[in-house]
Amino acid sequence: MEKMLIEGGHELSGQVRISGAKNSAVALLPASILADSQVTIEGLPNISDVETLSDLLEEIGGTVEWNDRTITVNPEKMVDMPLPNGKVKKLRASYYFMGAMLGKFKKAVIGLPGGCYLGPRPIDQHIKGFEALGAEVTNEQGAIYLRAKELRGARIYLDVVSVGATINIMLAAVRAKGKTIIENAAKEPEIIDVATLLTNMGAKIKGVGTDVIRIEGVESLHGCRHTIIPDRIEAGTYAIAAAAMGKEVVLDNVITRHIESLLAKLREMGVRLEEKDDQLLIAPRGPLKSVDIKTLVYPGFPTDLQQPFTSLLTKADSTGVITDTIYSARLKHIDELRRMNAMIKVEGGSIIVSGPVKLQGAKVKASDLRAGAALIVAGLMAEGVTEITGLEHIDRGYENIIEKLTNLGANVWREEMTPNEIKQFQNS
Ligand SMILES: CC(=O)N[C@H]1[C@@H](OP(=O)(O)OP(=O)(O)OC[C@H]2O[C@@H](n3ccc(=O)[nH]c3=O)[C@H](O)[C@@H]2O)O[C@H](CO)[C@@H](O)[C@@H]1O
Ligand SMILES: C=C(OP(=O)(O)O)C(=O)O
């Protein structure tokens, strides 16, 4: 087991290439189940969520070939094998095996997913969608059982705007008989990416990127080749790190439109930004002004950047208020940032960050992926050395983070934990 060490205070400069989007990758891979021949996806990020999903595709009989960041999945020999336990529990997106296997085999058994604990993360809207399409759904001993004689298109109104439910229903509906309409659908770029792959496979989907998606089911789907979109949350994390510690940092392979809500806030804080093609220059000038943010569904400010943004606000000139309307309990970074000298209060559902504060290096624990990102940003800013444990969360979503930060001038490395540290970590 390893920990990450960061010696803070080093200025960041240079260029960092943004990897393929985790939240696309984790849906594109299960989507490949629906094809009847090879699906090749280019630009996948080398992260543990992708590895886990690739293992799960093999568990159900697929073959998966890697060639650098290109993956070719051959689904021809896949079977409707139950996956009630094991690797499905390691990540959130294993729930996409429900929609994809239901679409292909008309049945599936999938253990309830893991992933970051951000407070309760129900999947009632996924299930409502599957039932509307004609599936019988039961929850037996922590696994979801789905069976359908046939899937029939339906009109489905989502009670909450959900990325996962929108994609999952889309995965099943592309193989249903007739027309499905998803109303109050989510509009995240990853949903468009998945719909693009499905369309290349022969699916008939209209309206993605709006809140009404119309799908005409088809008899079969074929293989295709697809290039993934860049990761807007990874891009946002580096943009935040650059705003905190950057001289001039250039993000390469970024779709700036996908992070417009973050860029607007960085501009308000006084950070100079320049966009050119698929590159973004981030150059902070002078003290940062405090701002308030409210996380919302896309195109609003993403909840996945709330935690690293909290760290940035500790450096700003006065008080900033953060309201996470998607996951109000996404607060596991706060106590750890307080250990680093941050002045943060949580009141009435809001995170109130008082700045400016000089953060101090400390021993801290990443309890979820973006809490990890928050601690890395804080570690870069802090005086002295910060030791971060819980790296398995960070490895779910950030490709080569040590190399990328080192190339930008940070002093960051990984070390094996001692047996004593492992014991302390496990008891904490
Ligand atoms: C793998 C993946 O893509 N993960 C992302 C996805 O998670 P995920 O797809 O799980 O998140 P959702 O968009 O579904 O959740 C949005 C909100 O809806 C609620 N909800 C969701 C489904 C449901 O059936 N019932 C329900 O009440 C959730 O509790 C949450 O408050 O979107 C989140 C919100 O942008 C991001 O933080 C995650 O990084
Ligand atoms: C919450 C996240 O991921 P997941 O939904 O996979 O747990 C995230 O990417 O910030």
TrEMBL record:
InterPro entries: Enolpyruvate_Tfrase_dom, Enolpyruvate_Tfrase_sf, MurA_subfamily, RNA3'P_cycl/enolpyr_Trfase_a/b, UDP_GlcNAc_COvinyl_MurA. Phosphoenolpyruvate binds at K22, N23. UDP-N-acetyl-alpha-D-glucosamine binds at R92, R121, P122, I123, D124, Q125, D304, I326. The modification 2-(S-cysteinyl)pyruvic acid O-phosphothioketal is found at C116. Keywords: Cell cycle, Cell division, Cell shape, Cell wall biogenesis/degradation, Cytoplasm, Peptidoglycan synthesis, Pyruvate, Transferase. Pathway: Cell wall biogenesis; peptidoglycan biosynthesis. It is an enzyme of class 2 (transferase). The keyword Cell cycle applies. This is UDP-N-acetylglucosamine 1-carboxyvinyltransferase. It comes from Oceanobacillus bengalensis. It catalyses: phosphoenolpyruvate + UDP-N-acetyl-alpha-D-glucosamine = UDP-N-acetyl-3-O-(1-carboxyvinyl)-alpha-D-glucosamine + phosphate. Belongs to the EPSP synthase family. MurA subfamily. NCBIfam families: murA, PRK09369.1, PRK12830.1. Its EC number is 2.5.1.7. One of its GO terms (biological process) is cell wall organization. Residues 7-405 form the Enolpyruvate transferase domain. Its main location: cytoplasm.
